[in-house]
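S1.2 Input.
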Amino acid sequence: MKNESKKAVIYCRVSSIEQVKNGHGLQSQEQRCREFAKYRDLEVYEVFHEEGVSGGLIDRPAITRMLALLRLNKAQKFIVIIDDISRLARDLKAHIELRMAIQEAGGILQSPSMEFGDDSDSRLVENMLASVSQHHRQKNAEQVKNRMRARMTAGYWIMKCPVGYKMEKRPGHGNMLVKHEPHASIVKEALEGFANDRFSSPVEVQSFFQYQPDFPKKGRKGEVYLQTVLDILNRILYTGYYEFAEWDIPLMQGKHEPIISFETYTKIQDKLHGRAKAPARKDLNQDFNLRGFILCDACGAPLRSCWSTGRYERYPYYLCHTKGCEHYGKSMKRDIVEGHFEELLKGIAPTQEVIGIMETLIEQSRERRFGNYEQIMADLKKERQLIDRKVENFLDRIGAADSATLITAYERQIKQLEEQRIVTEEKIKNCGKVDKSCEEVNRTALEFIGNPHKYWADGDLGDKRIVLKATFARPISYHRKEGYRTAALSLPFSILRDSDTLKSSMVGGRGLEPPTPTMSR
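S1.3 Output.
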């Protein structure tokens, strides 16, 4: 094709990141285009590389820059060289639009692989080749999707790894999900804590993640977003199962190791979609561990906290902020209030004798449970058979139903039954086995009841809030001169404390006075 213009630009494109990394696709395209320009005696003015961009897209960075250059030099009618028609676009609509955009900007499209013309026959051949390129792209996409779907139906998750997992090559499996520590243990603690009411809301889980130095944070401020927490709470992948409705993959067991049990996951879903929990207070901070939990003895309102600025430094205080209260605006030093609380906490633990009795009772309960595991196993197998019969019943109803609404309802029931079956299978599998996590929970509970002050002293703000909830049945009243009033303990402490401990742990009418606390029933 003859033309008076002697200036040319080269446009090269590769669609995959791998081609961008090794550089072979872009380099080979540019080399062939330069050889073509030399053969046509054209001066290459600029080269435009499109890296990792699909041929089905029209709005591309390099194309935009190239069209801007063509418009600025429209009178010169630059030659636009492409290695192949598929490099310009792999979609017929995109090809036509880009072809017209180049022409309107004053460019003339040329290629070493074909002749571009404006006559009807040349345009027919060009559009046919563009259609073939589009078909090839769509076929490749189908083949890739089919291979990926086959991989997933074989039990291997291939999508983005959630927090707690990473992709690792394993012999006989190829790339597969494996636990990524310490993230996996942090996620496990959070999910089980939410399921078992250690954390009452997603916001409290968010605070837990925020205080974990090893948990991945985002943004300039290093934050854990609430949406990240919700994604983790709703991700069934952590149970060792997954589903992918977009590719019609039903709930199935994966090859990866679970982080939590399916039963824990169902508890989380019930909690998320059941009764609402009050969100965690956002005004709590490490400076005032008791804010929102201690009450003014005179008016019953929660004490507030503040910093007072002195001549050389700032001082922390608690104070009542209720107008009309006799203690309104009268500050109490934080160190004294929290120091008295720690003394109170030290005194409520039961004796070692009582702890020993608890250990014996737990051991006896465990022995009875394991001694009866054959009956438990039989009951679980009956439950599984009942679930199977219910599933078969719903399948028969689907076959006889002529209403799309009914079929959808039956399918939803079947899915719920399948989830129940998974939970039952887990129980059958673990029946008669020592539950290490349960043993750990029992041990931790005994250690906590035996010394709640240790968990208070060693923990962060989140741990301290847990200590308050686990130790006391409700907030405690504090008198600015007389100290803490008698506190209502939570059930374990109220049952287990003995009379001797009571005499030295809880205050009566006059309360706890500094510096030596006096305790009475």
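S1.4 Remarks. Residues 357-433 form one domain.
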